[in-house]
Amino acid sequence: MRDLFLAYQSLVAFVGINGLLALSVYATLCCGQLSLANAGFMAIGAYTGALITLHSNAPFIAVLAAAALAPALVAVPLGLPVLRLRGVFLAIATIGFGEMVRLFFVNWDYTNGAMGLVAIPQRAGLWTIWLSLAVALYLLARVRGSRFGTALEAIREDETAARTMGIDTTAHKLAMLVLGAGLAGLAGGLEAHYTFMVAPGGYGFARVVEMLVQAVVGGTAAFFGPVAGAAFLTVLPEVLREAGSRLGFAPGPFRLLLNGLILLAVILYLPNGLVSLKRRKA
Amino acid sequence: MRAAANRFLSPLLLLAVVTGCKDKAGSGAASAPAGSSENAPAGAAAGAPAAGGAVIGAALSITGPAASYGAQQRAGIQAAVEELNAAGARLEVRIEDDSSTKEQGITVFQKFINLDKVSAIIGPTLSNTASAADPLAQQAMVPVLAVSNTAATGITDIGNYIWRDSLTEAQVIPGAFKKAKEKLGFNTAGVLYGNDDVFTKAGYDVMQKALENLQIKVLGTQTFAKPDRDYHAQITALAALKPDVLVISALADNAAAIVSQARQSGYTGPIVGGNGFNSPGFLKNAGAAAEGVMVGTSWNSLGTGPANQRFLEAMKKRGANPDQFSAQAYTGVYILAEAIKLAGGKTGREDIQAGLAKVHDLDTPLGKFSFTPARDAQHEPSVQQVKDGKFQIVQ
Amino acid sequence: MEQQALNGLFVGSIYALFAVGYTLVFGVLDILNLAHQAVFMLAAFIALALVAVRLPLWAALPLAMVAAGCIGLVLERVAFRPLRDRADSNISGLISSIAVATVFEAIAMQIFGPDISRFSENTFPDRIIHVGSATASLLQLCIIGISVLLMGALTLLLARTRLGRQIRAVAESPRAARVLGINVNRVIAAAFFISSALGGAAGVLFGLAFNSISPDVGRSVELKGLAVIILGGMGSIPGAVAAGFALGLIEVFTVARFGSSWRDGVSFAVLFLVLLARPRGLFGQAAAREA
Fold it and tell me: Fewer CB near the last or first residue (10 Å), C or N of chain B?
């Protein structure tokens, strides 16, 4: 049992980190905005945290705070112009931003370009990761239940109507973008200090797509949905690995295939994500 | 709902069975007998008993961007295990896919260390994954033998349990450039490298220093990204500077296309490549354009030692193209087997760790093999040039 | 410089051909089809397989286009139609298209392997042609020609034919189109067929031009394609054509002037600035309904 836990402890950690990332996408989704800048925010957080750890003796809590704060600060000047864009246009603009961040780190010699920073001490453990996730969930639950949350709901339903009701839609959307950026940065900082290294290759378009998929598969109607989606999709490849080896499949395309098919099945048959499964049964 | 899911999933599972069982057409390397799982002891194929023998984990990039290297490594490892077990060894190698990502690499390592209780680990394919996963093995005191990591830093300096049989770029490139300069006689260079990939960027950093030391003037430097397929703009810009030589650091796939496009757009000067060129895929895909390309290598395909002959024979039998990656992976298994032998046949982690330290002048496809005090590989690199569609060693 | 201009036109023609299909579906459905790059990839492999069984190239290209079109029909039926009435169809459609793209990639990997595949050397006559001080291969010029031809055909189809009018009507308002007695499902399927056939043609030409096809080959054009449809104006066909060529030229001159490490950054910066300054793109009026 202990061995089983030890063998899959990293999986538990990645569920927590991916949960934070899915929540960071959810933060903007819950007011109807599809922002895909989060891989970029994550990169900024990861590099900020790693650089502080490598060059100072700052306590880990301060490192994490900086990792969350740096992308949150970047999100303000980014958000003011791009949040005027709607729907897919916002998505594309933020994809562009994310790629520019990645290219910046690819070309920055100080952080060794593509090779990134290695030999980062492992300062994040399961406790830190899951505690961070719990704090994020608590925050989002509080937002959900507040007047602020009701306003977000109104913006999601109909932005123009919300504005005529006197809601400052830009301020609300910006607040959630900043919150999402902070969560992504926090996750980046945690990951950097769990996996011993950061490199720009981990923060491409594929990464943000992964976050979005996890959030939507879990379900964005409830604030815990994205975490459920992250858990499901993080564990799935391992289950498939085991199943594959029992059934005698070669590792490789087979896992990719099943991953795609399951994703398709969820999106087609469970429009409100995995969390709706429980309700249907009940 | 459940009925709907069943209806939907059952034909898909069928499809998966059909596609999953068919072996990948592109590489004869993955020639595990139909139906046998990758996870089953590779040795079982040779009919050797695995019980009581050493269990070794191999984390390879079977999918993802490094998949072509992973396939070569798998072929090399399977060949070596079959041979050794046929000769009476009791090795079981579990091959797992790290998907070319650090997260999967870490997960596979944790599984090897804690669940499979392997005696040693081979891999992972990429240096980045190694920087993320190797520290876990170091903590758990499980010996790791890297068989393809070429980054100079961040691998064996992780700790005393990390070993490698692949030469770093810094061990291969300076010598190769020196020889290339003697043979081709150039004083100015144009440089093209992949700047978003660890392997090619590390190669470039070493190249830059080597060129400086040889007092070759770099007229211009251009970059590309891994997913790129069109390099005309970079080539045109470099060719306009009229360098004596074109120096390229690229993965095999990119390399073939770059060389083809350079020749197609009329560049006729010599080309010197980095480690990524050392692949049968490069020769096959670049075709006639590859003629004359010079590259340093840690594996001499013409090596006449018995181990190399045996390796070439084994790869031929599997219908696989031998290359540096399969040679290094094949060598890796032999090194571990030798370590077990030197430990008196004991297969504990500490036994193998102690055995590895004693490996000395082992005959391998890479030549006589010994580790440096820093647990890196130490053997003579060679320089090869493409002639008549084949790599020929430059004397 | 002339050589670089030619390089830019050449890669630009493929960007444009890829993007017209991308933007056609966007114009009709308001949905970003992220499986477009996977169709692009599959078509290249199909043409490769056809040429490998000794079919001449002039037959393989149209056949691969038809095959790509059929793949597009499957894509529409499986990934988009079931989601059409959902409130969040633009996000769920995005995700289902990602799922299908993953499946396509897995299939290609299973059949063709993860490595680079290539057309055999004599698939196309190797002839060099001089244009001013620049040189081009016959293949390159043919690729530019074929792209322009296909894009012209699409423009004519949309402007002059009954199907074209129906597609434009559905793009304008599906509900109104239905009231007018248009079979909306069939028109959307037709748009997917055309879009995918064009994307497929781009894939085949790309495969021929740079002669390296792999299951992830679509990734290299996916984001470039986005930049092109933004620059040209979402849903605007002439915009996508002009922007495709423009992006090709911008990239090439960035390489020549500032060095290639700036190239992709400049593409995304252009995308970003166009979105902020002129969200409708250069040919915005054609896509007026987007705002």
Answer: C
